[in-house]
Each structure stands twice: as structure tokens, then as C-alpha cells.
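user: can you give me the structure for this one chain? C-alpha cells are fine.
assistant: on it. calling the predictor now.
[tool input]
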Amino acid sequence: MDGLNKHEVEYRIQNNMVNNENIRNSRSLKSIVLSNLLTLFNLIHVILFVLVLTTGSWANTTFVLAILFNIGISIFQEIKAKKIIDNLTIASVNNVCVIRDGEKIDIKPDEIVMDDLLYLKQGDSLLVDAMVVKSDNLEVDESVITGESDAIIKKKNDKLISGSIIVSGFAYAKVISINRDTYANNLIKEASSQVDNSSYLKKSINTILKVVTFLIIPVGVMLFVTQFVYSDQSYTESILSSVAGVIGMIPEGLVLLTSISLTVGVIKMASKKVIVQKLNGIELLACVDVLCLDKTGTITDGSMDVVDIVKVDKDKDINKIVSNMIRETVNATDIALSKYFGSNNDLIVKRSIPFSSSRKYSLVEFDNGKIYALGALEYLTDCEINEFSELNKHIDAGYRIITLVDCNDEFSRASNKIVAFIILKDNVRDNAKETLEYFKSQNVKIKIISGDNPQTVSNILKQLEIDGYDKYISGKDIPDNYNDLLKIVNDYVIFGRVTPYQKQAIIKALKESNTVGMIGDGVNDILALKEADCGIALASGISAARSVSEVVLTESDFAVLPSIVNEGRRVVNNIERVASMYLIKTVYSFLISILCIVLSYEYPFFPVQLSLISAICVGLPSFFLALEPNYNKVKKGFIIKVLVHLF
């Protein structure tokens, strides 16, 4: 247990086996800038700009302003997303205690080397992956990674994963993974990888631009030949006429209007305490037809309350017993009990055993010789919960039931006597039912994907009277084969005890036939948030979850979702409506160009004139139309609906 010596540490430092890698999972600035500059759409405008410059007419180059503005918005948004991803972290950064040359020393996290021997105690957060060498009643909370709410007992040779927290006990553990190789950083790496989440509007508008680009190149060339050869125009006049014809056929204002409309939507969302980190986040929400939630933090607020006491031994003073047992509030159950019974020191505690996920109970021995235990009935006695008919109404309501027992002289399941049942309920958010009912009315399916027990989640939905509360499946029963998962994923409402990778697979399977939104707040959610069409993070969660999401709810209240869904619908529906105005200009310019080619007429406009016409006759009216309220549900088929408006 002496740990590494000075020479072993120096060897690892020299061979770059130190936890100091500056991890970056995003694209470089150069790559972002080039990807937004080097497009066919931009190349056409550069060529047109150069051609106009050869005529010496600067006034006719105003058409490039819209393109430059749009490029600027795109680059700014990607650089903003890059900074967010680069700052992804999971575990809080504090000094770490290691054993070196037989002595305990505190070092910075970036000074940890491979094979270092860590000394871990209650409250410590794992920054690297490690293997337990020696432990004493070590319990670890891995909920931030796995979503499991219970603490897990760790023994010798068990693996400790980065991001987890020591709940109780202490341990010596050997470092086995650092930097990119840790479990937490592998999750971040996958979450930060580029996923094609191209927006509904962007895909549709890009399709229109591709068709237009395919047409304008040959038409533009023929128009120049006609103007210069057959219409007896000078070079300058021919160039300006041809460029005007091409510019008129490009709906560049549509691209700009989309960006502006989304930006206005972002500003409106900010006033509702919602941060839209990516412009397409609003419109993606408008198209969502499946919304996936976790239980804690969305449907419930993470707290509990005592709602009833069922006394069995009426001679016992339950308030006095429980209030003296609860001296420290370390979890939601303790807080609820303390709130209801209070906390007293009337009795002197001789011995206490804290609650453990393996024991499922806590125990206190007072100096008067009395021993009491509080926890799960089946772990305290030989009885079953269904033997007590008076508890049926609480079981049906989905409440949690903990049992207080008198252990007499020593703990024994056979002789422990039941004193009382304490009934607790998870506190459901006041607006949870109303919000879920809204999505039901909008034909948006709700799926609960949680690390908690599926039965617990089912009970919560039962309290809310939500359809499908009995359709649940546990992670161990979810098929590993993706094709098998596809067959069953739409049959269940609740997915419980799932791993981060199972969450990701479920989202991926749902995306096969739906537009999927995902709400999450923990590391166990980040792969699913990234995989979803629209990731929605709670501000109360960790930064890693917020960083990979399109939308962040700063007040951690998903009741605001209906308003941002409506905002997305307003943007998409109005852009669909005004897009036809830009395509009218495109069709009009195309027909004039064809007519001039066929009849060898002079093209009647110059670029500056068309820019003015586009701005006044199309740009300004469409801008105001795009801001009108329009909350109808968005349906796919953008191009078809635009063409219907056009003709």
C-alpha cells in the first residue's frame, strides 16, 4: 500500500502517462470556417461578384450583403457550439489524495499518473477510472453515469468509473484509465461526435437551392451569350444583365429570412428563461411527435413527503422514535421524515447503522436498550407487504412504504415487531399532468426513459392518470439486437433501469419512424440527448448534458415546453407561407430569362434594381408575415406545401 515511488512517477510523466490531456472533441476553427465558406451556393455568388467587379459597377454588388450576413450567422453559431463542447466536464475538479512513497499527499487532477494509488473517502468524486485494491464499507453513487438511484457496494477488484461519487466508507484504488480512455470521457467523445441533425427547414431549403442551382448555371450562360452576341449590348451591359437574371432566380432572401426568424425566436425564448443553443432547436421542437423524459427533475421534483402513518403498535410513540432516529438528512427520504417528525435529541444514541442499498434499512440503538430499524418490510421481517390489506390503497396509489420495527434486544427478522408503516409519495410537479395532457392533445407520444425502477416510474404515471402507465420494460429485458429493439420500442411507454447506451439505442430506434425530442439532465442522458433530433437539457443538471443539447430550460421546468413548441410552429408555418413569395420571384426571373434567350431581347433589369425590388416587394412583407402567430401542428412536406401556395 505504499503506492508509486518518485522514480515510477517520473517515468510515467516522461512517457506521457499523466491525466493532463487537454481534450477537445469538436471541429477546429479552420474546419468550421471553411465548411461554411466553401459551398457551391457561395461559389456562384463569388463568381457573380467578380463578374460585376470587372464592369467597375460597385453599386450592383449589393446582392452579396445577404450572403455575407448568412455566412456570419452560421459561423458564429458553430463557433459558439464548439466552445460549449470544448468545455464539457463531468466530475467536479478538486484536489486528489494519492499514496506515494507510503505517504498521503494531495495533488491536482492533472498530476495523476497511471497506476497511482488513490485514497478515496466519503464525498470524493472520481476523476479517472480506478480498480479497488482495498475497501472498508465502500458505497458508490453512480447515478450521474448510469441513472441508477441506489448506492452500490464496491469490493476488492471492482471497477470505479469516473464521474461517480463516494457515498460512504473509504478505499484505496489503483488508477487504470486516464484522459480520453476514461468511461466518462468516452461518453463525452461519443456525445460530441458529429451527428447529422440537419434541421427540417434547412434540408427543405437546401433541396430548393440545389434545384435552382442546377437550372441557373446553363440559363445564366445562355443569357450572357444572348445579351452579348445577339442583343448588341456592350460587355458591361451583358454582364450586368446576365448577373441580374441569375440573382433574380436565386431565393437568397429565403435563407436569410429563415436565419432571422429563428434568431427572433431565440430572443423570444430567452424572455421565457429558455436558452436555444442552436438555431434549429426551435423548429425541431415544432416537428417533435415523440417526447422522451426522465422521471426525476421533469415529472417529479426529486423530493418526497410523508402522507400517512399506519400504526400497528398503538402503544409506541412513533414521533419520538423516528425524530430521534433522524439526526442527519442524507437523502430525500430522510428529509421527508425530518420534515414530518422533526429532529430531536431526547434519546441518547448508543449505536447507529446508516441506510445502505444492500441492507435496505437503517438501525439505531438507544442508551435505554431499545433498538429500532427503519426500511423495507421484507428486509426487516419475514412478512410480505401484500399481507396487510390496510396498505392496499397506498400501494394502488403508487406510494412508497417504509416500515418501522422494534428489534427488542437484537436485530432478527423472525422476532422484529412492526411498529408502524410510514407512507411517502414522490412530489410530482404541479404542472406535470397539465403539460403531459397538452402533448397528448397534440398527438405527441410520451416515453419515460429512466435509470430508476420501471415499477416506481409506473406508479408515478398512475398517480397522474397517464395512459400507458402499465406498459413498462426493464433494461435487462430490452433486446441487445437493434432489429429486435425496433420491433418492440413503440409498444412501451416506460423504459426503466436502462444504461446510457440503451437510452441512445432506444432514441435511435424511435427516430426510425418519428421526430424525437429528449429531456435529460445527467451524464447518463448525454448520448441520448445527442442522438435525439432535439435535445432539451435542464439547467439544474450537469454541464455535459446542457452542452450537447439544442435547448436548455434555465428554470428546469418542462412546463415551459408548450410555449416553445408553439414558437417553433410559428416559425416553421410562417416560413412555409412566405417561401412561396421568394419562389414567385425565382419563377418570374426564370421565365423572363428564358423569354430573353428565345427572343434575343435585352434583360430589363440590373442587379441593384433586382436587389431593391426583392427587398421592398418581397423581403419586408415576408419579414412581417413571418412574425405572425401560427400555432398549427407542423406536418412534413415543406416543398409540396410551398408549391401549393405558389400555384
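assistant: here you go. The CA atoms of residues 329 and 335 lie 5 Å apart. The longest strand covers residues 129-141.
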